[in-house]
Each structure stands twice: as structure tokens, then as C-alpha cells.
Write the C-alpha cells for this entry.
Amino acid sequence: MKLKSLLFILGLIPTALSAHWVNVGNADYNWGPFLVYSIDLATENGEYKENQLPVMLSFKYEKPVEGKNFAISLIKEMEFLKADKAKTDLWLKDMQAIFPDFSPNAILRYIALPDKGYFILNDSVLDHEFEPEFSQMLINIWLSPQSNFVKLQPQLLGKEKGKVSSEEFKTQPEIDPMGEDEASPQLPPNFPLNAIESE
């Protein structure tokens, strides 16, 4: 991994972990009879006002979704909202470069900060930083008065109760319980024991 990428990811982790996110609301996105994903909106105070930052949008997939197609669908919505075509072309390439295919129960988050934004898939930061204009356009897809998703807004904004519990948007790393044999720290193989003794 390039040093620049590593520094980028390490710089984002404290921001993501230290923020205190409070659910505002959530809604289901259906395509015909199929539930494709649920979307959750969270802020630091559990309320949302226009142009408020920071904001976190979370998508919990119920069906397999190709990452490249999801990126295309986001760009189409941004273009519907009159985003600049030259910028959406670049954003599409950026998203398609970092999005894997999403499996059921995967959770993709977008954290929009005043100076940058980034995606997190489950517990992994995706290696690209987006500009504030991208963040605003992404938020507008669901929260703009001109959005194609106006029907979802009462639930996303907490004015109507969503069908999904906000608990479902929390990810827990899959860690096996530690046994007694594993409770003591282990030295790596070939560790020079005489280095400890000489100290």
C-alpha cells in the first residue's frame, strides 16, 4: 500500500471513531416489490437542518448490488439535480474505482465533514477523499426538495417512523471469543529473546 494511502486512512479513523452519531431517521428503498437497501441518516445531535454538517448516510444492503452500478445510479441522481457534468464524470470514476460489489447485510457509510467526505464499508475506510461539493450533492439525492426520493424524506428526517431499527445499522466486528490459552500475549516467531534479557 502506498504511504500516501496509508496516511490518508490513518488520518480518517480517529475522526470516524470519535464522532458521536445520533440517528435522525431511516427509510427503505424499494425497486418494484424488492427491498434493495435501507438508508439511515445520522448527525451529532439527532436532528437535521439544511446544509448541516457533519452528516452520516448509511446504506444497509438487502440484495446483492454491483458497486459500479450503484455508482452510476448515484451519478444519475446528481445529474438530475443539475450537478456539473465534468465533475460527475470524475466522481463516477472515483466511486467505481473504490466500490466493490455489495453483498446482503453489507453496510456502506458516507461521512460528510465540512472539508471532506469519505466512504466506509463495514469497518474499512475506502481509499478516496471526496470534496465538499460531492458531499452536498450526495446528501441532496435524498434530502433536496427536488429529489426523486421526496417520499422517503419524512422517514429519513424522523417525522415518520421508519420500518428498520437504527440498531441494524451498527456493525460489530466478527471476533471469536478469546480462550484462556490466548489470553496471554505471544511473542512473534524468531523474536530475539536476548534483546529482552539485555535490557
Remarks:
- The chain is about 35% helix and 20% strand.
- Residues 21-159 form a domain with the Chalcone isomerase fold (CATH 3.50.70.10).
- Helices lie at 3-18, 67-80, 85-98, 132-143, 153-156, 193-197.
- The beta strands are 22-31, 34-43, 55-61, 107-112, 117-121, 124-125.
